[in-house]
């Protein structure tokens, strides 16, 4: 995964329809996933991405602007903001526009479809399986001078995204030893691989192994996020039509944050009665329950 999104010159990002330059190559950037955006506050752009993944991705056909504007309007997104979100999403390479007279319809680009497919697989499978742990740890030693704060931030962001935690400055750990290759890529791209070291080892006799989890990851804050999710959706029983479509979209929108927050530690390292397990069961049950009606309502809107 590569954090951040870079726009290319020559892409219209105003209220008009973005277009690609013609010629030997395209100047439209490749879409990329931004961890900061995934974890940020709900916005027209972030809700649009959820709608694209949940309703547009499963169908290989374009969608009119009016349909997407209407759906975003169900979340109190004004038309101007919805149109701006469409233009920016297209400018970033996720969508392509096709004009028919005065109307415009939108289709996923090939890279956009690929990334949304990968994201959907991550979201819908998250929390369903727990891998067996062989009780081995991957330990990284990678320090960055205090003066290079931006580089320190980038290292922390990317290693955290890869599931690493830091029990003390310059030390990163993961119970998933298969993450060593990803860590090497991150360190190499940041120019830190030369001075870094990695070890794979078992925990020794000094201290308590389970204490590493609380020192390296903020499990209390994560548990609170899960509990908020549980409180929001446990007693929710939407009516037919728009209500179910809105509920399903919000369910997926809130759940899609957790793969970026939760390092998926083995049960041996988690507190008893871990709220993440309850939240995962709730998500998959509600998603299965609401999906038929939400998809039916989407079809009505598209055909209308």
Can you offer a commentary on this structure?
The chain is of the alpha+beta class. The chain has 3 domains: 91 residues, Winged helix-like DNA-binding domain superfamily/Winged helix DNA-binding domain (Arc Repressor Mutant, subunit A); 67 residues, Alpha-Beta Plaits (2-Layer Sandwich); 85 residues, no CATH class. Helix content is 48%, strand content 11%. It has 12 helices and 7 strands. The strands form 2 sheets. A 4-stranded antiparallel beta sheet has the order 5-6-4-7. Strand 2 and strand 3 form a beta hairpin. Helix 9 packs across helix 12 and helix 10 crosses helix 12. It is globular, with a radius of gyration of 22 Å. The N terminus is likely disordered.
Short note summarizing the structure:
This protein is α+β, with helices and mostly antiparallel strands.
Question: Uncertain spans, ≥5 residues at pLDDT below 50?
Answer: 1-26
CATH domain topology of the largest domain: Arc Repressor Mutant, subunit A
Helix content: 40-55%
* CATH homologous superfamily grouping of the largest domain: Winged helix-like DNA-binding domain superfamily/Winged helix DNA-binding domain
Order of helices and strands: HHEHHEEHEHEEHEHHHHH
- Care to count the β-strands? 7
Layout: helices, strands, pairs:
Blueprint: H1 35-39, H2 44-56, E1 63-64, H3 65-73, H4 79-91, E2 95-100, E3 103-108, H5 110-125, E4 136-141, H6 149-161, E5 165-168, E6 171-174, H7 180-189, E7 197-202, H8 211-216, H9 219-233, H10 242-255, H11 258-261, H12 275-303
Antiparallel strand pairs: 1-3, 2-3, 4-6, 4-7, 5-6
Helix pairs in contact: 2-4, 2-10, 3-4, 9-12, 10-12
């Amino acid at each position: 995964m590569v954090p951040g999104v870079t726009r290319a010159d020559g892409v219209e990002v105003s209220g008009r329809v973005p277009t690609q330059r013609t010629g030997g190559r395209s100047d439209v950037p490749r879409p990329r996933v931004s961890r900061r955006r995934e974890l940020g506050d709900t916005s027209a752009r972030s809700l649009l991405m959820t709608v694209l993944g949940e309703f547009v991705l499963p169908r290989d056909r374009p969608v009119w602007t009016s349909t997407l504007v209407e759906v975003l309007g169900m979340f109190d997104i004004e038309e101007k903001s919805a149109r701006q979100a469409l233009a920016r999403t297209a400018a970033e390479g996720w969508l392509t526009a096709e004009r028919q007279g005065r109307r415009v319809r939108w289709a996923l680009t090939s890279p956009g479809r690929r990334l949304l497919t990968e994201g959907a697989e991550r979201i819908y499978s998250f929390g369903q399986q727990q891998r067996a742990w062989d009780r081995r740890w991957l330990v990284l030693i990678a320090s960055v001078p205090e003066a290079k704060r931006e580089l320190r931030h980038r290292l922390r962001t990317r290693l955290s995204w890869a599931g690493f935690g830091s029990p003390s400055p310059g030390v990163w750990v993961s119970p998933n030893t298969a993450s060593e290759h990803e860590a090497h890529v991150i360190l190499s791209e940041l120019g830190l691989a030369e001075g870094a070291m990695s070890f794979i080892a078992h925990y020794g006799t000094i201290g308590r192994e389970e204490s590493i989890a609380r020192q390296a990851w903020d499990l209390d804050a994560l548990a609170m996020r899960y509990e908020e999710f549980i409180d929001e959706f446990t007693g929710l029983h939407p009516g037919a039509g728009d209500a179910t479509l809105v509920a399903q979209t919000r369910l997926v929108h809130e759940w899609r944050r957790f793969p970026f927050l939760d390092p998926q530690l083995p049960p041996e390292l988690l507190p008893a009665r871990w709220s993440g397990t309850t939240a995962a069961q709730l998500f998959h049950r509600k998603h299965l329950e609401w999906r038929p009606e939400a998809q039916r309502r989407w079809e009505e809107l598209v055909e209308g």
